């Protein structure tokens, strides 16, 4: 496994609340979840600074971090499908999901990219894009000046967040119902970002 950039924190005593760690592949996702945890005032969520942009690398980094953390800490990895048509990409996703399942790592996955999650703020039925740039272009119909890496996107869309969560859950159920034999990382469109938001909310309880 590659060396992790995660710095283990002092182990907390038994009974102390757990920490939720999030490893993201991109700056857009990092900024989004950092803004969300601040919005709900959740100090027990940490956005880790990962230097890995590939599925396997992100998952392996989270696995290494988990090995040096208290047993009750929770780990999430956030990444996108990007180019689903590339066979080597599908193999990488398969290996990442298998490693995550074996080691108790959660994955917030979006296909074709994180912008599908953002589109769900406006529509319950986003298109199945083959290229991330197409999803960005579609989002610009709703947010004229949107660019990948927008650090203020949570603020821009916060009033539509409840609808996005419902739309994402409905989309996931449809994909699972219509394609029961297809692995999650081959769904398009698809996202489980709403599940990570639910997990963050759960840290306040």
Q: What percent strand?
A: 5-15%
- Bulk shape: globular
How much helical structure, as a percent, in the residues? 40-55%
Oligomer designation = single chain
| Strand runs, count | 5
Report strand order across the widest sheet. Answer: 2-1-3-4-5
Helix/strand order, N-terminal first: EHEHEHEHHHHEH
CA radius of gyration is 17 Å
Poorly predicted ranges: 1-15
What's the main sheet like? Answer: 5 strands, mixed
* Secondary-structure class: alpha/beta
Measured distance between first and last alpha carbons = 34 Å
Put simply, the count of helices is 8
Mean pLDDT level: 90
Describe the structure concisely for a colleague.
With about 200 residues, the chain is of the alpha/beta class. Helices cover about 45% and strands about 10% of the residues.
Task: Explain this structure.
By secondary structure, the chain is an alpha/beta fold. Helices cover 44% and strands 12% of the residues. The protein contains 8 helices and 5 strands. The protein has helices spanning 27-39, 55-67, 87-103, 114-119, 132-139, 153-157, 161-178, 193-202, and strands at 20-24, 45-48, 74-80, 106-111, 190-191. A 5-stranded mixed beta sheet has the order 2-1-3-4-5, with helices on both faces. The protein is globular. It starts with 19 loop residues before the first strand and ends with a helix.
């Amino acid at each position: 496994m590659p060396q992790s950039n995660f710095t283990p924190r002092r182990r907390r005593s038994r009974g102390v609340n757990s920490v939720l760690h999030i490893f993201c592949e991109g700056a857009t996702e990092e900024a989004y979840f950092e803004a969300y945890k601040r919005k709900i005032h959740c100090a027990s969520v940490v956005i880790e600074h990962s230097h890995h942009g590939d599925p396997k690398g992100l998952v392996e980094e989270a696995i290494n971090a988990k090995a040096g953390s208290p047993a009750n800490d929770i780990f999430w990895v956030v990444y996108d499908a990007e180019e689903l048509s590339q066979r080597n990409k599908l193999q990488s996703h398969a290996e990442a999901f298998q490693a995550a399942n074996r080691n108790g790592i959660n994955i917030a996955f979006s296909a074709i990219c994180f912008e599908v999650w953002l589109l769900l703020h406006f529509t319950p039925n986003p298109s199945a894009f083959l290229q991330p740039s197409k999803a960005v272009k579609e989002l610009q119909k709703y947010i004229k000046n949107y660019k990948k890496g927008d650090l203020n996107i949570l603020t821009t869309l916060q009033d539509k967040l409840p609808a996005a969560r419902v739309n994402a859950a409905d989309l996931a159920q449809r994909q699972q119902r219509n394609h029961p034999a297809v692995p999650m990382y081959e769904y398009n469109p698809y996202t489980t970002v709403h599940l990570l938001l639910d997990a963050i909310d759960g840290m306040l309880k």
